[in-house]
Amino acid sequence: MSPMSEVIFNNSSKDANTSRYRADLTLTNRHDVEGMAVAFKVKTNSPERYHVKPSTGSIGRGEVLIIRIHLSPGYEELVSRDRFLILYQKMQAGSDVAQFWKDHSDKSDRFEHRIRVRFNAAEKKHESPIILTNSVEAPKVLKTPSKPTIPSEELAGLHRELGRVKGQLTRVEEQVDWIRSYFVYSLLLQSFLLILLFFVIHKLTSITYILESTESDPNGRFSEVVNSADRTSL
């Protein structure tokens, strides 16, 4: 099986027509028993994101089979949580694969191997293959540790944190705009009140001046009325 521990999708493997990313999983049957084959089945925890062909079948003695795995666009940052489960078991060559798996639905009758998924813009060399055998210990012995990489979960967390910070900045900008508008309205109101105050002071000053002028005039209207009445009585 190659790759052994991780299926990697790259930007360079994107199909121009379908926009899907493609990765290959190579299975090799190295059993040297005539008349025997290896039945296999490929499962995933996110079937809506992937198209696997073939997803089930059998491999004859000495044969090599390439499984095409296609990732739909839009899930590049979510594949880090996905896994592929490879089920395999020896079977008689020429047997019906679907019926074989119905007869071997019990986990004790089959062997399982899990593979992680990662999306990476750069190419990565294929890992050393492992041999499908009738022993669950063989993959553990021949497994080649993958190179340390930055966890995709951490990258997704950074993206979420960046989105949260952008949201906070947007709210701060809205608050600044509101404060600016409030300040402008307050300044206009203060200007209006100041003008109104000057107008009232001016009117009061004018009224006071008129009153003072009337009281200080000895020949004002009140005196003239009295004088006119007096002359009439005479």
The biggest beta sheet is recorded as: 5 strands, mixed
CATH class of the largest domain: Mainly Beta
CATH superfamily of the largest domain: Immunoglobulins
Distance between the termini: 141 Å
**What is the residue-averaged pLDDT?**
82
Approximate shape:
rod-shaped
Number of strands: 8
The CATH architecture of the largest domain can be given as Sandwich
CATH topology of the largest domain: Immunoglobulin-like
Strand order of the largest sheet: 1-8-7-3-5
Radius of gyration: 45 Å
The domain tally reads: 2
Helix content: 25-40%
Question: How do the SSEs run, as a string of H and E?
Answer: EEEEEEEHEHHH
Query: Which assembly state applies to the chains in this document?
Result: single chain
- Beta-strand percent range: 15-25%
Low-confidence stretches: 135-143, 222-226
Give the helix/strand layout.
Layout: E1 6-9, E2 21-28, E3 36-44, E4 50-53, E5 56-59, E6 64-71, E7 83-92, H1 97-103, E8 111-119, H2 138-142, H3 152-216, H4 221-233
Parallel strand pairs: 1-8
Antiparallel strand pairs: 2-6, 3-5, 3-7, 4-6, 7-8
Brief rundown of the structure:
With 234 residues, the protein is of the alpha+beta class. 38% of the residues lie in helices and 24% in strands.
